[in-house]
Specification:
The chain is mostly helical. The chain has helices spanning 5-21, 25-40, 47-66, 70-84, 101-114, 118-124, 136-152, 156-169, 171-175, 178-190, 195-205. The chain folds into two domains: 1-128, Tetratricopeptide repeat domain (Serine Threonine Protein Phosphatase 5, Tetratricopeptide repeat, Alpha Horseshoe), CATH 1.25.40; 130-208.
Amino acid sequence: MSGSAASVAYAARSLAVVLRHQGRQQMAERVTQHAADQLEKTGLTTRMQAAAYSQVLCTCAYSAAQAGDRDHAVEMLAEAKRAAARNPGQPLAGYAIGITPAHVSLYEIGVHWSLGDAGAALHAAHGLHPGQFRTAERRGRLHTDLARAWWQWGKPEQAAQSLLDAYRESAAEVISRPSIRAIAAELAARHPGIPAARQLAVIIGTHR
């Protein structure tokens, strides 16, 4: 009803997140792909359109990875990078973050660990640091995605430290996300000799 392709794309992205959490990854992928296709038809002539296009492609790539669609996920990430390179990264009016190449790389970490490629996920993280992200949620997400990759690669010490870093940036990313909390609990149970794992045991024990 708004007539704004960018607004429709952001709404589609939100819908896709809900669908993905319901285990409907393929539908989430289709929803975001359709939104990206419609947005691309505008010519991406405004910063809002370019930012929305990059953001929805990132979400599409992540949904594709969760659905096991490696080729589509990689293709969407590459297109998202090209779109993000056109945006200087300053926040748009009414939005907390700007979409930058660093944001796309953050999604790239998640895409690769979702596809079971921890090495590629950690490679995608090279050059990233918390200062590139304006919100505590994104900074925390950087550390939790790294923790997933380290854990997938069989590196418990690095995984535990990444979860501690995530907790310091945004406690909810560790204590309120079931999948992340499960990793923290497993680290604490299986690797009590690691100092960071012992700290995680205390953290999750006090937030039951």
